[in-house]
Amino acid sequence: MTSFRSSLLQLLEERGYIHQVTDAEALDALANKEVVAGYIGFDATAPSLHVGSLVQIMLLRRLQQAGHKPIVLMGGGTTKVGDPTGKDESRKLLSDDDITTNIAGIRKVFERFLTFGDGPTDAVLVNNDDWLSKLEYVPFLRDVGRHFTINRMLTFDSVRIRLDREQPLTFLEFNYMILQAYDFLELSRRVGCRLQMGGSDQWGNIVNGIELTRRIEGTEIYGITTPLITNPDGSKMGKTERGAVWLNEDLLSPYDYWQFWRNVDDTNVGVFLRRFTDLTIDEVARLEKLSGAEINEAKIVLATEATAMLHGREAAEAAARTAAETFGAGGAGEELPTLNVGDGMTVAHALTALGFTPSNKEAKRKIAEGAVRLDDVVISDPAMMATSGRLSLGKKRHGLLVR
Q: Where's the motif 'KMSKS' region (predicted)?
């Protein structure tokens, strides 16, 4: 039985979002008494977020569902620096125009999950470039930098791992943790933000922001981190052979997004139903008890509910129908990705053009393994010219070739 009194922490606990909390008792009391504004930061390094960010997006959704105020902090300023956490090398520096374009693309995703507006619990999107780019260097060093010691900064995994591997860590990146801590201070000043949330790898950065704000403002603020979700092989959720599972429809179709969820490992189905759908806990409990062949029912529900949340119910049900036709009745499926091959495209080239393989070399390897079929006939010659039909890679990747 939960010991939390606030609907916020009760909801996060029963859905499996809580890994660590700073002063859980005080945060619980605050959330039980008033509307809490909480934020998560997202750097704008690409025109879309991918499914690896979905835990944090859902965390903001749960915050709003519990009657509190989500703040989406876009890192227009910190993107210019680059978060070294989990990175083996420096990120490519982006132009202001690139960052602006990326933020516009990312906002579309949040509009699917959150209600934006001017109300007390409506979500807001803010950009840390609004304050970071206006900082004066010497005053910032004097007022903020003096609260950070190099000794402690060197103990952070994001720094220590790069140094242990003798990989370059620029002074630019070294400043990232200070800027992130300053974001929390600035948000507490500007919009009364009392909570920062993030993945478990952000714990140190969150604590930095809490300590900085207490020292400078004397404000009590809090942090929550979520557990890391991994595949059975230890890799991060969302990492696939085909690359990132993007959340924007122009980068990944609703059908392919549906297929990602349909094909998750059996051991993750219950966890994903809790964290990535709005199904009741009772319904999740029923579905996660299914085993054997029946687990596929739970996976289909997961895929349809997760896809409906991002792309809408109609697109999710169309993807489910296409999958049923393709895998169940041997049909084509109207939502499958389609490629016009004309008169001069090889099967290997078609595999790459559909996005099933990252290169023609990999496509040829898959053909040599006997993993490629055209209308259920195994293809053995990578130089074979593509004709109209259903092209398949393994049991999970299917596309329509037309001429």
A: 236-240
